[in-house]
Task: inverse folding
């Protein structure tokens, strides 16, 4: 499948439109993670619908000293990958096309959630991101727009903007795509030297350590719920050697678990990576409520996000995993 390359909003408006339009927004330098988004969009749009991939490196979301000029631009390869993955068109406007009057005077504010974690590390980033997403939603007029869950805070803010400002579009989050060794796919991975890449694996390893600690904790909590309440039942279990296991499960479940244990398990991996050569320099490790990205307490129940950001060399990377607390089941 070959994707058409469109450079202006007029070109996009001129396309005959049938069925559902699914849009995948990117900054280019497409990789398998983007291909997964496009293939998912193709399934959602169906054979009668249309998939549009946007490629635009948005200057509003880059702060002073960030890598706007360094950010990879590979449009020819992007169009090829998009077409092979199922896109009908690639909309790659210029900065002047998106911001014809220069930097916009009126912008979208990300509010308090936009000042936490990534927002604290990159002031103004989310205001710039939401402003261009709003513009691209208006320009492309999709029925559904898809975004990767690797940028969890970004996805949460886009969903909040669409809900709060009554955008008539469905937002779909697509799970993070990882390389075989666990590193989350990112356009910035190409900046890493072989030694830096080995250090960068600590981000996903820390998340997996937190997830595994959580899964073990939830399993122990489930086991603790089966501890007998009556002496007769306890004696019966004791006869087959299970009372000690039940007691151990109960002790661990009630004293060493929850969010604090998850953070501690992840932090241990990151602390070790800080001593590597080259070292990992941690920006933040956080366990947050995905609704507003505030830290969760030890008595929290429900969905959460374990998120990490760090620098290796001159490259800044982010990653996250979703977890669920209080279900006495598997971490997801």
Result:
């Amino acid at each position: 499948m070959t994707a058409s390359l469109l450079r202006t909003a007029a070109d996009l408006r001129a396309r005959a439109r049938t069925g559902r339009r699914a849009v995948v927004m990117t900054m280019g330098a497409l990789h398998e993670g983007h291909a997964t988004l496009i293939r998912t969009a193709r399934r959602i749009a169906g054979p009668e619908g249309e998939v549009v991939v946007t490629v635009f490196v948005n200057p509003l979301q880059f702060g002073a000293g960030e890598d706007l000029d360094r950010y990879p631009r590979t449009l020819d390869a992007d169009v090829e990958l998009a077409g092979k993955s199922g896109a009908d068109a690639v909309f790659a406007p210029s900065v002047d096309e998106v911001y014809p009057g220069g930097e916009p005077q009126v912008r979208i504010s990300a509010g308090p959630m936009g000042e936490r974690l990534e927002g604290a590390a990159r002031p103004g980033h989310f205001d710039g991101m939401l402003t261009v997403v709003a513009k691209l939603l208006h320009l492309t007029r999709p029925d559904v727009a898809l975004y990767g869950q690797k940028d969890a805070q970004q996805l949460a803010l886009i969903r909040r903007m669409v809900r709060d400002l009554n955008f008539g579009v469905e937002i779909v989050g697509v799970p993070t795509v990882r390389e075989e060794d666990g590193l989350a796919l990112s356009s910035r991975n190409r900046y890493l030297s072989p030694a830096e890449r080995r250090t960068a694996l600590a981000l996903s390893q820390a998340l997996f350590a937190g997830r595994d600690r959580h899964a073990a904790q939830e399993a122990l909590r489930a086991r603790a719920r089966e501890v007998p309440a009556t002496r007769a039942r306890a004696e019966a279990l004791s006869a087959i050697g299970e009372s000690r296991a039940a007691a151990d499960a109960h002790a661990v479940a009630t004293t060493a678990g929850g969010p604090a244990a998850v953070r501690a398990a992840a932090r241990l991996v990151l602390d070790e990576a800080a001593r590597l050569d080259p070292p990992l320099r941690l920006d933040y490790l956080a366990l947050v409520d995905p609704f507003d990205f505030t830290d969760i307490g030890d008595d929290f129940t429900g969905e959460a996000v374990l998120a990490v950001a760090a620098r290796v060399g001159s490259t800044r990377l982010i990653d996250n995993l979703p977890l669920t607390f209080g279900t006495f089941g598997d971490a997801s």
Remarks:
- The radius of gyration is 23 Å.
- The CA atoms of residues 53 and 90 lie 5 Å apart.
